[in-house]
Structures are given as C-alpha cells and as structure tokens.
Amino acid sequence: MSLTLLHVLITCIVVLLTAVAYLFWRRMNYWRERGIPHDKPSYLYGSFRGLSKSYGFSEILRSMYQRYKGTGPFCGYYFFQRPAAMILDMGLVKNILMKDFSNFSDRGLFYNEQDDPLTGHLFFVDSSKWHVLHGKLSPTFSEYKVRGMFPLMCNGAQQLVQTLDALVQRNVNVEVKELMGRYATDVIGKCALGIECNSLKNPNAECRAIGRRIFTDRRHSPLVSGLIEGFPKLARKLRMAVIHEDIANFFVRLVRENMEYREKHNVRGNDLMNLMMELNKSKKLRYDENDEFKGLTVEEMTAQAFFFFAAGSEKSSSTLSGALYELARQSEIQERLRSEIIETLCQHDNELTYECLHEMKYMKQVLSETLRKYPVLPHLVRQALLDYPVPDHPEYVIPAGVLVTIPVIGIHYDPEIYPDPEKFDPERFTPENVKMRERIGWLPFGDGPRKCIGFRFAEMEMRTALVYLLKNFKFSVSELTKSTSINLRGDTFLKVERI
Ligand code: HEM
C-alpha cells in the first residue's frame, strides 16, 4: 500500500470516528441543549449508572421522580443512550395516555419482525399494525370470554391446592413465587392456547421451564440490551435479535402443532388460538402493499402466542406472590379477607361462582393495594409522533421520537397521593377513598387505548387463586421470609399451614 493511500485511509478512519463521537456527544447533551432539567448521564448507561440486582430500574425511576417532581411538567433522562422524558404532572399523564393518544399511540421500543419474528407482538408493534391487531385481538379477553374461562381457572386453582398440600406435608416453608408461576402457566396455557402445560404436576414441565427463561435468560448483556433500546432503528438495520433461538423454536413448534391438531380433529376452542386461526384463514384479511390488514400469518400468530403466554405466566404470578407476602406479614388483613371469602361462599351454597368473586369487596381492595405497591411494570412507555408543546408550558416541548415515560412506580409511592407509601394498607382502596383520588394515580394496568388487554383475565385469575388458597391454608412469615427482597424480584418463602 502506498504511503498516500495509507494516509487517506487513516484520515478517513479519524474523520469517521470523530463524526461518531460528535453524534454521540450531541445525543448525550440532548436535554442540556434544550434547557430541560435532568441528571448528568453516563455515556455507557445513560441515567442508569449503578444499575444492579439490588438497585434496579424501579429504584432509579422512583428516585428520579421524587427529585424532579414540582420542577416542571416533565424532566429529561437517558434510557441508556436514548433521550427520554419522564412525565411529572398528572394532567399531562392523562393527555398522553388518553386525550392526545393519537400523538402517543406508539411505544417506540425495539422489535424486528424480520430477524426476530417473536418480537412482532401487540405490546411492541406500533402504528397501523398495532391499531389493527388491537382491534382483532382484544375480544379474546372481553368480559364475556373471561367468564367462559372461569371454570378453567377454578380447575387450575384446585390443582394448586393439591400441589401446595403435598409441599406442606414435606416442608412448612414454601417458595410461593415459583408456585404461583406454575399455576399461572397452567391457566394461561389452557385458557389462551388450549394446551395442558402440567407445570403444577411437574415443576420441570417444558412450558414452565421456557416460561421461567423468558424473563431471566437474556440473549445479551444489560449493556448490549441497553444499546439496542437506545438505538432501536439501528439495531433493526443491524439485524439484531433479542429472543433466544430455542425459545422462539419452542413457540413456533407449539403453534404449528396446535394448528395441525385443531384442523385435523376439527377442534374449536373459546380461546386466543381459535381467534387467531380464524384471522389466519380469512383471506380477505392480510396486509397488502397499502398497509391494509389482510390477515394474520403463522409467524404473527406465534408472536402473539409468545407474548400472551409470557404476560399470563409472569405478571399475575408475581402480583399473587406479592399479595401472599403482605397477607403473611399482616395476619389481621389475612383473617379479614378469609372471613369475607367464607361468608360469601356460605351465601352461595359453598360454591364459587363468577358473580361471587365480584361480591368480594375486600378482596378487590387487597389486590388493588398489592398492584399499587408492586406494579409489575414500573413505568409505561410511549413515543411522541410529532413535537408536542405541553399545554400551558410553552417552554416545554416533548420532541418527536423521544421516549416518553410515565413513572408508575414514582406515582404509586408519591406520599402526596398515598401517605406512608411503604405501608401495605387496603383501606386506601375503599370506594370512598378511591373517589377522593384522581383515577390516573393508579396505573398497574396502564390506561387509555393501550391499556393491558389481559386485566380482566388477570383479576379473575388472581381472585380465584386467593379464594382457594385462603380457604385452605394459613400463610405466615418465617426466618426464610426475611431474605425476600422488598420488590419481590427474588424468592418469596412463606410458612404455610393447612387449615
Ligand atoms: C397482574 C397481571 C398483569 C399486569 C399488572 C399487567 C400490566 C400491563 C401493563 C402495565 C401494560 C402496559 C399498559 C400501557 O402501556 O398503558 C400491559 C400491556 C399488555 N398486557 Fe398486561 N398485565 C397483566 C396481565 C396480562 C395478561 C394475563 C395478559 C394476557 C394474557 C396481558 C396482556 C397484555 C397485552 C397484550 C398488552 C399490550 C396492550 C397494547 O399495547 O395494546 N397482560 N399489561
């Protein structure tokens, strides 16, 4: 190579590196340039410096909300390298989730249908695809459909009692988080996909093993995951994938075999799988070049099956273990709830019905307080489509493309909304107390058109489990419970006795 050529090459590399460094520097100065209050970011971790197992996202978001609340309608932060706005004003939260939803209908998170097809599910997809999918899939968990699933939930809860019985005979300390995960896996498998997961009978059942891995077994390190979320468009261009191949293969096989079986035996279930098969067959419906929905492909069906399974097996179970943990710590609340269950059942010839569950007012209060204290998603995420000048604050504009965060964890622990927020107190959710607060101050399922579509299902599933559990067992704390982390990320050991 001639000296001149080498010189040109080195110059090009230096120019390129300088340009990249400059763009990076500009990005990490995004809020400073706009004069929006924010913490100085770390170049690698953005605002999540110090992130660890014991100091997670929730703690960082909560501390940021507490420090910036009152400074303006939002503050800036960096979701790793991506500029993000944290909303601090309840009026603005309402505008984003509901009134001005058309400008905030996207989540703007990473998904890559081409190279990582399972990420193309309702939670991740945006724009017209979300609109159509949402319209087609939300009937799966309508009040009517959930009522039809109620007997399956009861079967699951009976199986849960039998499994717990066997565990109690062997050991009084039970790790309830995993046990609730097994119950929720069996219930969502049966109700959404029409399959028997058998994870209560067999803790190592394949479905459960996969379900456990979805949330614990990341394909990339936190740093690389952060970069993917920081530059979602670039990550898509680089053909990145986030879901492990063997997990994806499991769901591809599950959906394919399920379809084949149903077609061969002419099986029609009252479930998500059935609904998706109808959308798959309907040739009148499939996306065409004008972005019009023209049906659901098998890959798209698999992505939905994956997310519904993941949401159904994890979220209700961690909320249930939070409820049991708090009930074990406060025996008077546990006794009061048990009395309500027994009285209500007595009024219905000892038979648990769907209507009966709705009559249990204290049950609703206990679960609402659990969801306040342990929201499974510590923040809601949206993305502005166009620049959004904040009403009454002309100096504050949410720029298009910026990630918008509603800090659920900050709001749920805001002492001005919930005095003494660390205390578990179901009285906060009596109908009178609820009326005195703004509805937007309780967001465990989100709100507006992108609210959780599984909320009715999850509520019924959790209530059913609590009825069966409290009728048959007494929960209390033991030496082992003390190792439980307050945000229930780890194991939750409780002492369990048969009544
Ligand atoms: C205790 C249980 C659950 C909690 C706390 C929960 C919470 C949430 C939250 C906070 C969101 C985001 C809402 C927003 O951005 O406004 C969400 C979205 C969603 N959830 Fe749930 N969820 C639970 C159970 C379930 C179940 C059982 C399913 C279905 C099997 C489910 C399906 C979904 C779907 C499909 C979305 C995306 C909705 C959309 O973007 O249109 N969730 N959930």
Overview of the structural elements:
The protein has helices at 3-27, 30-34, 57-68, 90-99, 127-137, 143-170, 176-193, 206-216, 222-230, 232-237, 245-265, 272-281, 298-329, 331-346, 354-359, 361-373, 408-412, 431-436, 455-472; strands at residues 74-79, 82-87, 173-175, 380-383, 388-389, 397-398, 403-406, 473-476, 493-498. It is of the alpha+beta class and 499 residues long. The longest helix is centred in the middle third of the chain and has 32 residues, at 298-329. The model has no long low-confidence stretch (mean pLDDT 90). It binds protoporphyrin IX containing FE. Protoporphyrin IX containing FE binds at residues 122-123, 134, 188, 192, 308, 311-312, 315-316, 319, 376-377, 380, 444-447, 450-454, 457-458.
Largest sheet, described in full?
4 strands, mixed
Gyration radius, in Å = 24 Å
* Small molecules bound: protoporphyrin IX containing FE
Q: Give the termini separation.
A: 85 Å
Instruction: Extract low-pLDDT stretches.
Output: none
How many helices in DSSP terms? Answer: 19
H/E element sequence: HHHEEHHHEHHHHHHHHHHEEEEHHHEE
Number of strands: 9
Strand order within the widest beta sheet: 1-2-7-4
Q: What is the typical, i.e. mean, pLDDT? A: 90
Summarize the structure.
It is built from 19 helices and nine strands. It has helices at residues 3-27, 30-34, 57-68, 90-99, 127-137, 143-170, 176-193, 206-216, 222-230, 232-237, 245-265, 272-281, 298-329, 331-346, 354-359, 361-373, 408-412, 431-436, 455-472, and strands at 74-79, 82-87, 173-175, 380-383, 388-389, 397-398, 403-406, 473-476, 493-498.
